[in-house]
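SAMPLE LOG
Freezer: B-3
Tube label: C17
Construct: single chain, 259 aa
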Amino acid sequence: MAGRIEIGICLAPERVPALSPGYDYLELGLSTALSPLEDDAAFATRGTALQTLRPQVRAFNVFAPRTLRLTGDHVDWEQVETYVRRGFRRAGDLGGEVVVFGSGASRSVPEGFSRAIAWGQLVRFLNICANHAAQNGLVVAIEPLNKGESNILNTYPEAVRLARDVARDEVRVLADIYHFMQDGEPLDDILEGPEWLAHVHLADTGRRWPGSGTYPLERLFDILRDIDYRGRASIECSWGDDFTGESARSLRFLKALLR
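STRUCTURE (predicted):
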């Protein structure tokens, strides 16, 4: 597996100077770093600064703010189209390759609303994403979220079903060990649709840094080895007071799992 999986980190741009060296790439928040609700003139200075980040940006999470509804009676499809068009163009300009679609507050089905209609709205949304992803060299990875964060798309197989319904090359699925552990989903669910896996998120017990707890990260990397996964894996966790030291220890722990 050595050399096949790049290890990155989900991080706000202002924390990058304190990051321990050795990470392959950065994963930024799309809604916060790229501000798709702002026009290009307002974003220009920030965009120039993001180009200078090292390691380079290759992925994005935190897709949509809760104010951008994706299901229910109040979806503004014109706003959604503008948001995705700007966000994906800016992501592509920065060298991004993967955009993670979690956004539990935006996608959760409103109480009393038809889940079948909401599912169709998510298919429509992901088709919009696929159109702009294709134009900007991106892949969208659907993130299954635990039931405390979303009432739809809670398991890996459910996310695979949605990706199959969208049926676009640009739409795939993410596996986040934290959400697996929160809801007691077996990691072996990945084996039900390994060809759909496009991105991985890593954490440890209490959503702390990998290597600090008892999550079955070794089993996860065994699965990635078995399916010949060659994508990226980003740490998405909470850090303590010694971010530089913890990010160094976490990277050493994960690199040991790649051998």
